[in-house]
Amino acid sequence: MREPVFSLKNTHFRFPDDQENTLKDLTFDILPGERAVISGPSGCGKSTLLYLLNRLYPLNCDGILSGSIRLFGKRAEDYTPGEINHRVATVFQDPDSQFCMPTVEAELAFTLENLHVPFTEMESRITDVLSLTGLTPLRHAVIQSLSGGMKQRVATACALIMKPEVLLLDEPISHLDPLTAKQFIAWLDGLQKQFGLTIVAVEHRLDLWESFFGRDIQLDACGRILADQRFIPKAAVAFPKRPTVLQAALSLEVSGLATSVNGKSLLSPLSFSVHRGEVTVVAGPNGSGKSTLLKTLCGIYKSSGGTVESDDNGYVPQSPEYLFLTQRIKDEIAYSASSTPTEIQDLMERLRLTDIQYAHPFAVSHGQKRRVAIAAMLADKRQLLLMDEPTSGQDAAALQALAQLIAERANEGVSFLIVTHDMEFAAAVADFVLLIKDGSLTGKFLCEELWANEELLASHHLLAPKGVKLRAESFA
């Protein structure tokens, strides 16, 4: 019988400041060449488990570990720091957290230097991995100028250039547009078959993966194994459709808005408007300018032309950590003091933040951080909310709660401009979809019109949301 790549037996883990274990009594083996997904509710310890497998934890967090973990047949604690990373490569949930160098080429070269790869081999390995990942045109690009989706691809290239035996992926498609996500999964499928990689991924959006995984290790909310079974392709999260209720008054009017950064044009002049109570989704390919538009509207990027007239807006960025100002989640949500204690308590309960209300905002999972940022903006009672990928890292229950909160606030006259690649979520909450491609505005479309236009969807790397196809066809 083949020796397991990973072998856990009665493994418990907790962070030093916690009273209870994050992970409890985990026992399982993962064999070479397996494709396993770790699933479960947001905040249940999925990413923590991944970081135990690559030895990032407990060494880098002073965590308390009990039970047994063996990596390639060797006790995990017997590996020297960094030793296992020659064989196990990781793509983190937030790619920004793993970049050290300014450009794509420099980051790849830095990875090889850490592996002591001879300089004479670096050029060919960098060229090969850029070709493999479709990143050759971005070889000299500044990483921080790239979209979240492109950063995810760069992080994957940095993992693959190590020629690992195991690839650990923490929500690898969360920042990818639907078409690019499907292409990434197909590419990963071929790569795994070609090199016999062992792949372990943390994922919420299992519908796009179809039959990629062979095994599903499900954790419950308390960090225990709920099920360890053959993977069954999942259906997309189902949402009730929000009825459209628009007011005559405008919340946002954009005319000829353009944005340039360091002399490079990121947004061509574009014009559109948003009414009070309107929910508009901003969609398009990775790198098309969606996040740039939100950053320009809220003043992070200075516009290079045009005008913006808007209600007082609130902004939830792709990296929610940039918003945090306090030491406790409860204080973070209450920071603006625009909501009553009862309203704040209601927000925390509905977004499942009550159990972690006294935790530090930086100490919770990525999905929980995002819900904290969303709750803080909702508590602030701004009349226009700009949200960049609010569904990333969220389980089905969190998505349902968020959709309901958006519907309620929209009915009260609050407007939303939401960047998302989740078309199921868009179909549930949006009145319109604003399509952007290559920094230019294609147009603003009623959702039903867009779902019926397969050519327009394909040209913007989108897929019609599951469950609305028949409605779209009847509309056409």
UniProtKB/TrEMBL annotation:
One GO MF term: ATP binding
SUPFAM superfamilies cross-referenced by the UniProt entry: P-loop containing nucleoside triphosphate hydrolases (SSF52540)
The cellular component terms of Gene Ontology attached to this UniProt record, alphabetical and capped at eight, are: ATP-binding cassette (ABC) transporter complex
Q: Which domain of life is it from?
A: Bacteria
The listed locations are:
Cell membrane
Query: Where mainly located?
Result: membrane
Q: In this protein, which residues make up the domain named ABC transporter?
A: 6-247, 252-463
Q: What Pfam families does the entry give?
A: ABC_tran
Keywords, sorted A to Z = ATP-binding, Cell membrane, Membrane, Nucleotide-binding, Translocase, Transport
Protein topology in the membrane: Peripheral membrane protein
Per the record, the similarity remark reads: Belongs to the ABC transporter superfamily.
Q: What is the protein named?
A: ATP-binding cassette domain-containing protein
Q: Which organism is it from?
A: Planococcus glaciei
